[in-house]
Specification:
- Helix content is about 60%, strand content about 5%.
- By secondary structure, the protein is mainly alpha-helical.
- The strands form three sheets. The chain has a three-stranded antiparallel beta sheet. Strands 1-2 form a two-stranded antiparallel sheet. Strands 6-7 form a two-stranded antiparallel sheet.
- A hairpin with a 5-residue loop joins strand 1 and strand 2.
- Helix 13 packs across helix 14, helix 19 packs antiparallel against helix 20 and helix 27 packs across helix 29.
- About 50% of the residues are buried.
């Protein structure tokens, strides 16, 4: 059989006879399984996708739809023999069909192949002919349908532009100008489309019209978005003005020769692309943050408050660390979200308000935010969570729970509370097919178990996160779990027969090598020196004094111990007196323990008393282990010595 979803949902037997799929719900079940691309969709997820407010009979109704679809697609299947197409697996269902049997899958595979072999891209016209209208055109506008329509439509636009680029680069493209003129009229935000149209006009000998096209594009970009044309567009205009004999030759724009990559798009498309790239880490993550802010600025300049709210709230990329990678950018995003919240007002659309509030909570990282701004972030996290619950929107609730997690470092000793948040996040994400947030849930629970010294439980969550990461292309996860395994090696280096301290140090250094290129400086900077300091404290040794170590944000609390290791007691006392109260973040227990240890070594009972007061709620936790990446050993050790020094021991 074959299935078509690039238009109305239809199905056909191998002999060309149409398959009667039944009513709208039957077609929606089939369409949802097509969108899963061969992966199992749980019964719970299907129920939530089909009904905004599922009735008590929803599961039974779903089974009825599935049974009817099975009879339709396999009418000759003998009784009591297992189905071969619409298959039950675990707690859900999947479609078992070759990819070439589904038009959307054939289209995506052809586009992927054309990107890898640009000389075949001119042949995408046949693939584009598979489209008969909007994807899933006859299905209701539920969230999964809208997401798939947006995703597939973006791929269609990329295919149109990739084909046009290939035709022009090969010297073809007769009649392409009219096609591209319609494309630009429908999608004026797409700068690549304007460039392609100008090239096509120039190829047809219509030089004046090509220049006028580029000037219209510049006016639109500047006046509506506040963006200057890209250098590529400016070069194209210069080439047309000077009559360059070889406009846009193949290979000018990188290995694919395509003019459709790394160019400014409309704000909505830009932030969707940025959101996807963020999960890749490295340069893609760094670029995604920059592109996100560009999209927000462009959206604000349009004056469309709804567009601005959607662009700001669309970047629901899971965040695991309580220190921002780019604090200035984070503050700019928070400011834009707060401005947009004021413009929408308290009676504005609840879903937009919830996403803006969740953005304020996730971007106001506790290590970088203080005072009234931090209180605002705490309030925003709880408000977003409440709105998401009322709206019964699982994706929005997952985003809001991420904000709740990042605002849960108000004092030491809250690992158990964070574990509750992680457990809820994991339940929501798994039940509703949100793999990125399921990974986040496992990582939150890994961190919590690590903080509580439950290394077996933490290892289970590390393995689960890695399995999901492998299935959903999340390369940052193994970088984080490598640190967790180094943290385990460090803890076990104190046990009889365990690994040596040198082995643990090597594990930390190996993990640090991958983290250095991950695009997460807020996490990376200072982490290795802190881990090595913790390892030395586990073994009763002085702090490392290598001048090449970059302590980053942790220097004020490490400095007293480093100076003591250099026999500079007077400077160590001055550094201890100057050290501020640790920020409420993943490392607060570790930094308070360093303060306690230095206070004991320097005989400062007043400082020891302050540290003991802060650490009492974390007595059962392990210092530095709240991030799942390093350990200084049990908090109780540092707390006890601080209480003895302060004269408050029981």
């Amino acid at each position: 059989m074959r299935i078509e979803v690039l238009g109305a949902v239809q199905a056909w037997h191998d002999d060309g006879r149409p398959i009667s799929l039944g009513g709208p719900r039957h077609r929606e079940v089939l369409g949802r399984l097509v969108a899963a691309q061969g992966r199992m969709v749980t019964t719970d997820a299907l129920v939530d996708d089909l009904w905004d407010d599922p009735p008590s009979s929803a599961v039974g109704a779903l089974r009825t739809f599935v049974a009817a679809l099975r009879r339709a697609v396999e009418p000759d299947r003998p009784p009591r023999t297992p189905p071969r197409v619409l298959v039950t697996q675990g707690t859900g269902y999947l479609l078992r069909l070759p990819r070439e049997a589904v038009d959307a899958h054939r289209f995506q595979d052809a586009l992927t192949a054309a990107r890898r072999s640009p000389d075949t891209a001119a042949g995408l016209g046949e693939t584009l002919a598979l489209w008969r209208g909007p994807a899933y055109a006859d299905l209701p506008g539920s969230s999964w349908v809208e997401h798939e329509r947006l995703r597939l439509e973006e791929l269609r636009l990329q295919a149109v532009e990739l084909r046009a680029d290939a035709l022009l680069a090969s010297g073809g493209g007769a009649g392409l100008a009219a096609e591209l003129a319609g494309h630009v009229a429908e999608h004026p935000w797409r700068e690549p489309a304007w460039g392609l149209l100008a090239r096509a006009l120039h190829r047809d000998g219509r030089r004046a019209e090509a220049l006028a096209t580029l000037r219209r594009a510049r006016t639109m970009l500047v006046e509506q978005l506040g963006l200057d044309p890209s250098p590529r567009m400016q070069r194209l205009e210069t080439d047309i003005l000077t009559g360059s004999p070889d406009l846009d030759p193949p290979g000018e724009h990188g290995p694919t020769g395509s003019t459709t990559t790394r160019t400014p798009l409309g704000p909505r498309t830009t932030v969707d692309v940025a959101r996807t790239l963020a999960l890749a880490g490295g340069d893609a993550l760094v670029g995604s943050r920059r592109d996100r802010l560009t999209a927000i600025v462009a959206a604000e300049r349009t004056g469309d408050v709804t567009l601005t709210a959607r662009v700001i709230g669309a970047y629901d990329v899971p965040a695991i660390w309580s220190r921002a990678d780019d604090p200035d950018q984070a503050r700019a995003v928070v400011a834009a979200a707060e401005r947009t919240l004021r413009r929408i007002g308290p009676d504005g659309p609840a879903d937009l308000r919830a996403r803006l509030l969740a953005t304020v909570a996730t971007e106001s990282r506790s290590a970088d935010t203080t005072g009234a701004a931090l209180e605002t972030a705490h309030t925003a996290a709880r408000a977003a969570q409440a709105l998401a619950r009322d709206l019964k929107d699982p994706a929005l609730l997952a985003f809001a729970l991420n904000g709740v997690f990042l605002q849960s470092f108000t004092r030491p000793g809250l690992a158990a509370r964070r574990d509750e948040t992680g457990a809820e996040l994991l339940t929501v994400a798994c039940h509703h097919g949100l793999p990125a947030f399921a990974i986040l849930g496992h990582l939150v629970r890994l961190q919590s178990a690590s903080a509580l010294g439950e290394l077996g439980t933490a290892a289970e969550h590390a393995a689960a996160a890695e399995a999901l990461a492998a299935a959903h292309e999340s390369p940052l996860v193994p970088v984080l779990t490598a640190w967790f395994r180094a943290r385990v090696t460090a803890a076990r280096s104190t046990e009889p027969g365990g690994p040596t301290a040198a082995t643990a140090a090597a594990a930390y250094r190996a993990a640090d090598g991958d983290l250095a290129t991950s695009g997460m400086p807020g996490l990376h900077r200072g982490l290795l020196p802190l881990a090595l300091l913790g390892l030395r404290l586990l073994h009763g040794r002085p702090a490392p004094t290598d001048p090449g170590l970059d302590w980053g944000p942790y220097l004020p609390w490490a400095a007293p111990l480093v100076l003591l290791a250099q026999d500079r007691a007077a400077q160590a006392r001055a550094a201890l007196a100057a050290a501020p109260e640790p920020p409420g973040d993943h490392m607060q227990e570790a930094l308070w323990c360093l303060t306690a240890h230095a206070a004991v070594a320097l005989d400062r009972p007043d400082v020891a008393a302050r540290a003991a007061t802060a650490l009492r709620g974390a007595r059962a936790e392990h210092a530095g282990a709240a991030g799942g990446m390093l350990t200084l050993g049990p908090v109780e050790r540092y707390l006890t010595e601080a209480e003895v020094c302060a004269g408050t021991a029981r």
